[in-house]
Specification:
The protein has one domain (about 5-105): HIT-like (HIT family, subunit A, 2-Layer Sandwich), CATH 3.30.428.10. It is an alpha+beta fold. The chain has helices spanning about 5-10, 60-75, and strands at about 20, 25-30, 35-45, 80-85, 100-105. About 20% of the residues lie in helices and about 20% in strands. Bound molecules: guanosine-5'-monophosphate and zinc ion (ZN).
């Protein structure tokens, strides 16, 4: 997907602050965090939204979700965290490459 920001991050064409990478998934810090810790988990395969997934994506979706607590703990979110998947324009989705937001730890650190 040549016009997809997250595919460009995957291709190394846009820099990102990497949290985790394996053969099928990448996690990186959100550029506009809404919590002290806020990162995104994305598949390397371009899938636009959760609504585009079918039973063939069960394993991938499961692995994305199961990665969240592992990475949240590594990021210091021992007390817990929130997950969010915005789906479609009406769901507030802005980047049409499926992603799980993982965030917590209170208000983001203000940078002035
Ligand atoms: P959505 O609203 O689609 O669920 O969330 C997209 C998220 O991607 C937003 O929280 C936004 O800050 C983040 N984002 C958009 N462009 C970039 C980028 O180039 N780099 C990073 N790291 N995050 C981005
Ligand atoms: Zn993409």
């Amino acid at each position: 997907m040549s016009d997809c920001i997250f595919c460009k991050i995957l291709a190394g064409q846009i820099p990102s602050s990497k949290v985790y990478e394996d053969d099928e998934l990448l996690a990186f810090h959100d550029i506009h965090p809404f919590a002290r810790v806020h990162f995104l988990i994305i598949p390397k395969q371009h899938i636009a939204t959760l609504a585009d997934c079918s039973s063939g994506h069960e394993g991938l979706l499961g692995r994305m979700l199961l990665l969240a607590p592992r990475l949240a703990k590594k990021q210091g979110l021992d007390a817990g965290f929130k997950t969010l998947i915005n789906t479609g324009r009406g769901g507030g989705q802005e980047v049409f490459h499926i992603h799980v937001h993982v965030f917590g730890g209170g208000d983001p650190v203000k940078r002035s």
